[in-house]
Records
---
Amino acid sequence: MFFDYLNLSWHSIRNRSLRSWLTILGVVIGVTAIVTLISIGQGIQDSILREFEKVGYNTVTVLPGNFDTQRGGFGNSSADTSSYLDRSVMDEVDGVKVSAAIRSEDLQVVSENLEGQAFLRVSGMSPSVLSDFDDYFDGFPISDGERFSYDGDAREAVLGPEIAGELGVKAGGTIEIEGQEFTVSGILGAEDGGESGQFSFYGDLDNGLFVPLSAVEALYGDEGKASLVLAEVYEDVEVAEVADEIEKAYSQVDTASTTITTEEISNRVNSALGTIQMALAGIAGISLLVGGIGVMNTMYTAVLERTREIGVMKAVGAKNGQILGLFLTESGLLGLVGGSIGTAVGVGLSLLASRFISQALEAPFVPSFGPWLLIGAIAFSFVLGSISGVLPARQASKLQPVEALRYE
Amino acid sequence: MVELQNVAKKYTMGETEVRALRGLDLNITKEEFVAIVGPSGSGKSTLMHIIGALDIPDEGRVLLDGTDISEYDENELANLRGNKVGFVFQTFNLIHTLSSLENVALPLTFHGISKSDREDRAAELLEMVGLGDRMDHKPAELSGGEQQRVSIARALVNDPDILLADEPTGNLDSDTGKDIMELIEGLNRDKGMTIVLVTHNPRDAEYADRIVNMIDGKISNGEHDNGGGS
């Protein structure tokens, strides 16, 4: 029965070819917008989540003070730098497998090729930062040279590509920090020599200036101070509980601390992205609504034009419900064709857009097409078309056969 | 077969109320060929609509095989039309997007009959009306006479008890009209089909067993036995 309706509908859609295609176009535009926006939004969300996965959900970040965690990259944050954390407190917290310390200070930096001097954020990293938490820095990729050797109290530095450019140094060159000479052991960046670009937990790696923790401590002449502590907890413990334990341990030594778990951030990022995505989808939904109104308009016209035909069908025994079904199938079919084309165009468009997004982000980006998105978009278009056809189809089904036959 | 008792029907056209039927009695027996004649506006078409279960009367009773259908709801009427009645219209009323075969098979679609059975039956009828070689043609590719043959085939596809023809030759030239009338007459003569023909063409009415004259929504006393086909 349904296939008979489909066949009849197909005949009449083809018969008013131009009008049908224009109606379908309205649906295509709406579906294209939705598929494109959602697949790109989902792609962004996925790539961010992949970063979280890399860092691992069993990492706890500890900051001194009661820190506002809303900002994002901790390395760039304006946390209260006058207070520090003692990394060794971590050794007393159950559940912590390994921990690492970073001490960031604003220091005077001078280089041969830089006129004058600059005050730059210099981050001292304990050896375990790179051995256990390098994913926190997007893998700490070196494009030129190598990482610090942590060889005794060697004064070595790794620079982000942008800052290295400003300072005019390459791997093997030297800079002065607070009057002490440091060898540039490596420049950060992807292997192809481009900027690292990727989202990193730490924040902007391109402008980072990293040295061994011991070198910063030597400059200040004190030890055991960290502006950021990283902890990896054992697989079989609750990350949130360990985070609480860490805060408790610090409060016992009269240090205010704030812990952030990967899960917390990922939830927050997810919900923020989700909201943006919903808003975009809502806007795209408006165009789909307009498409639906187009279907309704076309179906009303079709009912009017085919009044006699409806009369004939009723005269040969079609029941009201069958006429209703016939017109609903027809409007659903308009939606279905529009939805299928729109989905295909949307996929093409987001693949095209992803090339520009990749360029803009300077990182590979793939839009995400879940099967639910593709099937959902097509199914939804069919439903939308059918719903848009309800009122016209009801009108058709309720026509009196005698009057319909008399209609000129 | 069909019995109308004191049937009255009025409808409004614009702001005027038209009393199309004014207390009409009519009896059509099985295998009878009845022609209903009368001037325009005499209520012929309304009468045919009521006999064909397309409409129900405001007053009076319509008995089809002894069952009163004047209180039927829309779906019951649709069922009745689908099973017992075949319509042939002056303007053919074929669906122009469908081929001859599909047009003839259309009524069976609403009966949930399978596509292959529908098409077999439709092809059989198209052969019968002499259009075996025109099955895939769309109405626009057929002459008026051919279109009317398709519509007769469509009217017969559900194997109806009664065939209702409303001015079937009205849009045809006289030779073609004659062919169509002979086809209709043959259905009555050879297959015993009950036929009600509405016409204002006296020559068409000649084919009928009985001519019913209508005027002002009533049957005038001119009803007479025609003595069979010419």
---
Amino acid sequence: MTRPLLLDALRGGATFVGDGGMGTELQLAGLEPGGCGDEWNLSHAAAVQAIQRRYAEAGAQILLTNTFGTNQFVLSRYDLAEQVAEIARAAAMNARAAAGPHTYVLGDIGPCGGFLEPLGEISEDALRQTWRLAIQAMLDVGVAGIIFETMTALDEITLGVRLARELGAPLVAASMAYDPVRGGGFRTMMGVSPADGARACAAAGADVIGANCGRMEPEDFVAVAGEMAAVTDAPLMLQPNAGQPRLEGTAIVYPRGPESLAPALLELARHAAIVGGCCGTTPAHIAAFARARG
Amino acid sequence: MTDLAELAQHLIDGHDADVARLTRDALDEGRAPAAILEQGLIAGMQVVGERFRDNIIFVPEVLVAARAMKAGLAHLEPVLAACGIEPIGTYVIGTVKGDIHDIGKNLVGMMLKGAGFRVIDLGVNTPLAKFQAAIEEHRPDIVGMSALLTTTMGQMKVNIESFRAAGLFDRLRVMVGGAAVSEDYAESIGAHAYGADAPSSVAKARSLLAELKAARA
């Protein structure tokens, strides 16, 4: 394989186009609201691959696996707690099948769905155990790294980063979801600032530091990136939503279309090594960004 | 004599053992349970709510305060019940069908309990029939529905229309909340109130309850 390690490429100054939203695309493909998108890696592998292929064709150079909730706590709500490794393996194979020879795949890890002790009832051991299954399964397939994203709690994300390091992930990315707060600045739901998040994730061993989702406009990510860059030299990754969803009639609409989002993403690319999209972004958004980027 | 302001402060700081101890002390001294609840626990939770709303504190601080409140209520509730002090109202709460998110809903439920409501929590992924059965069984004053996902919030409208068709709105009020929901959306689907966050949900629940009681009087 001629493709260099993603981390080496990033350290060499290369920049990349990420992918866009997965959940909304799965629903367009027929996933019922509230259904288990992760399970589709097994039962609807072709549909998952088709979405990821559209992102790759749109110009995404990095694809995330469809494993946002692949942990025992989320999957137990669907009676699938025993299938963490199986789903993770299938997901990594789906993404690899959709990815071209020059496209990287990152194994995706979303929030565990609860709070760690002592605040909540999930023990560190239990979380490590279930994430270990998912991460190991994806590393065995040969993903280019592991990304923790849409995280809001420092204990949770740093546990994940350390675990992925221990398991030998060739790259570990750590991305949190920030909201604007009164009086200026940004915090996660759990009160973590971009500077604190970046500092803690870098200290835990993250190679790439990021922000995604959250109740921010895409333009707000410039300020968040600035706060993160002030405390870490690590390459940054930014994946905003297509604006904040609003209701039009009975339809939920993300206000930023491909042509409106592309300039915003282009601006973010001046501040981050990897730029893609989150909720409400589609292959068309990524294509418009990739075209604008040239 | 136990300082109820100190009790409130311990609750704000999330000191559950201190809240439990001071609640017990106040009861042992013969303080009126209603005063302990109002001037101690609820007063503290009020401050927590305001600080949360103003982004001075975040979810972890609210969770530990709610836990402290629970520690106090554990001592207070049996006494309140023995004195014949009824809950101020009954609130049925649940995340709608197709949605399995419950962090916000649980916070609202805890704070409603703290505010003196009897809370019946139907959990996540709650079908309409389960809401209907709970309304029949528990005769709530308010039903609260939560949705995090833009894809499941439509279910709130379906439920509200069914409650309306069943003629429930002469005795029942409906509140909605969750990340996807907005004030405008709440209004457009005929909800009686929108809870932006846990503290404001409690405030709105109280005012809906007052409205209902005035209408019944």
---
Amino acid sequence: MPHVKCLRCRECGSEYPIEPLNACEFCFGPLEVEYDYESISKAVSRESIAAGPNTMWRYHDFLPVDRELAIDISTGFTPLIHAKNLGSQLGLDKLYIKNDSVNPTYSFKDRPVSVTTTKALEFEFEVLACVSTGNLMGSVAAHGAKAGMKTMVFYPADLEQGKIQGAAVYGPTMVAVTGNYDHANRFCSELADNHRWAFVNINMRPFYAEGSKTLGYEVAEQLGWKAPDHCVVPGASGELHTKIWKGLQEFNDIGLIENLKTKMHLAQPEGCSPIVGAFETGSDHVTPVRPETLAKSLAIGNPAAGPYSLEVLKETDGTGVYAEENTIIDGIKLLAETEGIFTETAGGVVISSLKKLVEQGKIKRDEVTVAYVTGNGLKTMEAMGDFVEPIQTTPDYETFQTALAAAQKS
Amino acid sequence: MSTKRVRFTFPSELIKEPVIYKLGIDFEIVTNIRRADVRDSMGWVVLELEGDDEIIKDGLDWVASTGVRVDPVGGDIIEG
């Protein structure tokens, strides 16, 4: 951890040592890791990064942990695919899909959780914990297993069995919390205050958030050390949006890329779009909402990084855009049918929002555009509903030919 | 006695209501405001509460019943 200076409050600027702290003691503002960029710039080059492992840990100099101690389950350096078919449909010649659904637990959460688990061991925590409705719980359970830590996974009692089993297979202690969303939220926040556990997105949040920066670094490197003209990022807490931008800024500041002019667009589902709502009204205040969306992985009604995400939208001339609920599945299908990539509902939100941005003239045909697909479609099969209409046939050739002809006519 | 850090979000129609004052007077909870932004159309206050566990819980239930939204300071922690 040679390049880390301190934790600093995003609101009042107070400085703190590198400890498992989430909030400033004075103003309760969130804390952010601060680095010595002069030291980083002396340590890294395009060549040194390219010579690193084909994982997110090739960027270890930009992360708040020691590379040697990393809990690495081969996360990151996921494909950046030139989406020619989808681009052709949308009217974009240089559209790329950053397919982060192929991480070890099939979502981008492996990036922040890998950093957090490493840091939790460094802080000598014995228990790794989270409260989640899906992707995060699987990632925490997997990393806890790899690290040999006791792992506690809290989840709403009415969660789908598939998601519960997807985390339980790694052997964590599973805790089903009854009651409504607000009660579970408050209860788990109190747990974090009263137990010396590494709650990945509570007391470990400053370190957790840093892992998402690697989604900015990778895209820049994979584009030939250039930043894209546009990024379209799914929005839940808003942290992913701010951290991809931070990653691009860091690369630009130390000279690994030049001429950073990326517009950072944010995509939320209509049923949970507090940041986009504030953007549209020109407010710098994010009013919490009660989520009612198909995109469960984006259902954060009171987004911790909402105000900072709004700042990024303003700073980069980005656009906050929401996908209507009835277009989320359309977005999933469009990506699957054109590029062979099956994403979860958050990806459907991104693709539908991308389509809107093109229709609104925010993105031009020849501009380099990256759409972030952050989770695998197999995780949200229930959201797809019963959409399959197979051709029915008995096992004989004539019947099949007749049925096929009828299907092709309709 | 324990402390709790919370964020109150006021809808426009409740901005002029002395909710925090009543929380102190009626529930005998010590309120300590750390950050706030109050405008014509909305307002939020980040504060620390000090008092008996059960009384703080009752007090927060009352605040929520008035229509003021009560959240943990760090935003929602249940992630997808």
---
Amino acid sequence: MQIYLPIAEMSVNVFLILGLGGVVGLLSGIFGVGGGFLMTPILIFIGVPSPVAVATEANQIVASSVSGVLAHWSRGNVDFKMGAVLLLGGLAGSSFGVWLFSVLRDVGQIDLVIRLSYVIFLGIIGGLMFVESLRALTRRRNPAAARRKLHKHTWVHGLPLKMRFRKSKLYISALLPFGVGALVGILAAIMGVGGGFIMVPAMIYLLGMPTFVVVGTSLFQIIFVTANVTFLQAYANQTVDVVLALLLLTGGVIGAQIGARLSGKLRGEQLRILLALIVLAVCTKLGIDLALVPEDIYSMGYSE
Amino acid sequence: MSGRRSLVAFGCLALLLALVGPGRASPLVADLSKHLVAITTAFAGSDVLLFGAVEEPGDIVVVVRGPPRRQVMHRKSRIAGIWVNTATMTFDDVPSFFAVAASRPLEEIASDSVRKRNGMNIEDLVTLPSAKGSENVRDEWRQALIRNKQREGLYQPQLGRVSFSGPRLFRSDVFFPANVPTGNYQVQTYLLRDGALVSAQTTPLIVGKIGLEADLFDFAHEQAAFYGLIAIALALLAGWLAHVAFRRS
């Protein structure tokens, strides 16, 4: 069954889109990730124009983050103060990102920047995750291995504008979460991701937040940042396709529920290795596409 | 389907012939099975039937042209191992869609100058001012644009068929793919004899989104801010519903 997408201006198979939403939702349910970093490249692979893919995916992430954050909120796992500071950075970063997006589109470099950002970030994150989970597997076999120090003092603790975050049990400079939020905001606007896959490690390793508040707080600020991206992309570029977003959502919600149930029955480290491999596979595919001689070195850009 | 359509077409044709009448003989009459290609939710491309009649036997050429657009083209070259757009060319005015059909191969029907003058070759319609580089360079860009448009199915690479039923009645099918650009199209029908133009007729055709598709598109463009807010509200609602459903089960 074909459906015509009014903004993407193309005809797609309904079941293909529902299925893709479902598979990515399943993965996000199992691994507790947003799935934007998988969905946006897949949409681009099936021929959705990249500006529409990025903007529409931001819209979908609003929905998946809301259902996630409500679950964490009911368990009290959201640090709203930290979330607010991250959010301020995120709003600034994503607004800048949407502007940068239009500029790059006008000079014909947006596709390259999107693909390069994916290759770089998926490569780093996938690689780190792979190494980390391999190490965790060997550590379990060798329980005498050294433990990480709980709290280390580094240069980041010397920054001004210190603030107390009770829930996270931290007393750090507000500049730090603001900066993290801003960086992730730019990526959200350009890559069509929530940015959880960068935000979560940054919160744990850079800010030193306790793990139990990390996911909820990250989701909390992702809602607002992706909502900001959705609004600005719709306003400035008219690239949000609600029909596509609703189809992806429907598949995603169902997939995520099944995934969340499955995740309890699977082992953590092996899951992480699997996710790392998926991330690295997407990264490799995008990287190869950039390096291979294109089918045609000429391509069509903007038309009006 | 096709049978019924031809029946309708020839019905219309009979009417046309009656209107034209034997007294004021027109050398060529042609019309389309529909004047609006409606892009609806289920749109996956559409065929339009062109039909007509000629007073005396001759050759028919049908040219379908989409609304002119500005089109930017990019050329990649390799930088540090990856392919990057390094050159850009803007065509100010090229047809967004182009298809030609004829009753015989074009070269046998029409002289070079007739083809050129009446825009039967896409090569003559995709042009760049001479200020934009040497002849060779411009030709590369033009060929590239045509090739890319053909790959998207917007320029038809092959000559379509105009078939005659008897000496006077002709018909031709034009296919519009799902990614067809919207706007006002021109369908030109030419009657030629011995390589020279005898008569021509222009029939307008509109390709447009209608119903929900049109409403959403117009809404997104005319009230962009409000559209953005609605998109967010829908997402929030969907997320909340998912949470509720998840908690219950």
